[in-house]
């Protein structure tokens, strides 16, 4: 640990900044071995600060201070102190201008925070605390300033110089350099600062706002990628129009720019007017990008654009409030994606990701509230809890208030806090004030960690013609929070009659218009809701639309679940019924295997899956959502199955799921082959919802066909698709089918396909990332050895986060391979963490999670996992990022 035992930062210790920075003027001169940064800061004492602010501490690290002055007077050495992380100014006046000059080394900045080089391009990433690597500053989100940035560089090498705002001045210099000044008229914190310099190409378009202003839109990338940015531009224009229509938010600058960067720790960054994107979130072309890749581009472009208001115009007071901008904006981009494609499939995807990734986080040693109470390293709190669970919290408010009142609340929030740095409490108060709804108890969602459990019982009284739902809620203990207060949440329900139709719902009490879906406000530890005028025994449809991020327990029979799969009008509940049925059948197979028995797979599951497929075969008018059918045919992931158990038996989970998958494949091979052929299209590729749905269903069938007792018969089918595919979706799906097939005939075909794929796409970095990930995610035996070999491959590098994540994260998320009984998977991951930590601690920390869950894994694997955590913890010079996660987990 380079700084000894690091001290946690506490939310309760928050104090306003002692000084405010009214104006920030930067001059950045770029050279091949360094960058020289001069800053001029106009500061004044903060009237809200209590105490003596005569000593000012500025953040700054990894730089050489060459000059410092106050009001043009150079400071003597006894007037300031410099250490590894701060510049302290002694006896400063109430208002003054601070000038400083520093030298930094972007070329050596492998952590990719602050100013660094990605290939031949200079670029920045300043969230959360990267700006302190550029110059000395009050690097905190509640210090908002107006920025002017002048960039100077060699024109032939770096003809494009970009920063926030509008370009206001350009000049040529005698030595071949050029200089451009950018001015941002809006207040912003330093984390939203951006700078890019490189030899870049761009496409340009325009957008006319709802008030009639024309905005120039530009997307920059290196020349070899310029043919892959058209879809991102179309997505941007769709997002701008959608945000005006749904939220009334109009863009506020004359230009909006996006830059694609190959080496980037995150997905993208919403810097004001100049968004910097990971190439994986902006580049798209049919032959190199899958449908999922297109959808990711569309969603991330929208997300970062939406931040212009929910994050930029109104920003966070401190980093404990991170979900203020991220949770709200994820909700907004989820709404947008649902409107652009299949709403049911989007909601299923949201729920599936939350339950597979965030629920285990809630149940692990790093569990934290959506608004954390403390942290050692803020980079560790860019989590699914803050983002995706934060989005679910906003969605619940939206459900409780309804669209109209929620829109009124968001309008008030933006109007009241424009240009301010605020808190989640300010957000909730604005929604309360606009709607008149008391959200006092609802605030528990922001301050309590853990996933609530709803235990629901149903009781039909034929004589009284009532159906009662008894709802009991609880929440498991989490670190630092052993006891929880009840949550307030919306439970959306329906009742389905024997004929498969929704029954009209009317609650006992005052007369109300009956409806087919009713949102029950759950707020007590235990409460009962009574529905009247119920003439027949219904099957309850619970948690419609995944109305709250909870674990739901209800004693459905398998017949109930097959009934819901066929009849529930709610897409999420239809899918959820299939998932519950599959989990029940897989658990039954696990128990049988543990008892040394061989048990046939329940025919009801097979019949339910076949019924979904046959509906598509007979669908002549396109009434069925093929993407939804594909989702319903997908078995629960092994990681999800493991999370359902207090202590997971990895071997039993893998064997049982494989047996059920193969049984489905064998029972439905004929109909799957028919559906596969029926969904072949000779249309030119388009990332449209109907085409994406058809490819999704077709490739789901291919994955089943390339498994089971007769998988060898389908290997030629996969080979043919691989060789003839005109788009990456079909090509990658065929390669994945071959890599996961286990028959002898598949081995030669797999090796040939892998070699051909690599040879064909060796110059396309994002495609080669897929090549690594497909192999790392293989479920066949020997994947650990394959991954070890790929670590030594000429195309693998620790320096590119995308490549590292493709191989290392892809493997660590592969449950059966990572948990190899030898413990070799744990050792491989620990080796990579120790290897990467000195280079890029942020990315190293983000791959630690699989090791932290050792308490939830059965048998000797616990000891093996914990040993690797201890080995990491004992490593010399461990970063704060990795130390925080490992020390809380070991």
Layout of strands and helices, then pairs:
Layout: E1 9-10, E2 19-30, E3 35-45, E4 56-59, E5 64-70, E6 73-74, E7 80-82, E8 86-89, E9 95-104, E10 114-118, E11 121-125, E12 144-154, E13 160-163, E14 166-172, E15 177-189, E16 195-198, E17 201-208, E18 214-221, H1 230-247, E19 255-261, E20 268-269, E21 274-278, H2 291-306, E22 314-316, H3 322-340, H4 343-362, E23 374-375, H5 385-401, H6 403-417, E24 420-422, H7 424-435, H8 444-447, E25 453-461, E26 466-474, E27 489-496, E28 518-522, E29 526-532, E30 539-542, E31 551-553, H9 558-567, H10 571-594, H11 603-617, H12 626-632, H13 638-643, H14 650-667, H15 669-678, H16 689-705, H17 711-724, H18 728-740, H19 744-761, H20 765-776, H21 783-791, H22 801-812, H23 815-818, H24 824-836, H25 841-846, H26 849-852, H27 861-873, H28 880-889
Parallel strand pairs: 2-12, 18-19, 19-21, 22-24, 25-31
Antiparallel strand pairs: 1-23, 2-3, 3-9, 4-8, 5-6, 5-9, 7-8, 10-11, 12-15, 13-16, 14-15, 17-18, 20-21, 25-26, 26-29, 27-28, 27-30
Helix pairs in contact: 1-2, 2-3, 3-4, 3-5, 4-10, 5-6, 6-7, 9-10, 9-11, 10-14, 11-15, 12-16, 15-16, 16-18, 17-18, 17-19, 18-20, 19-20, 20-22, 24-27, 27-28
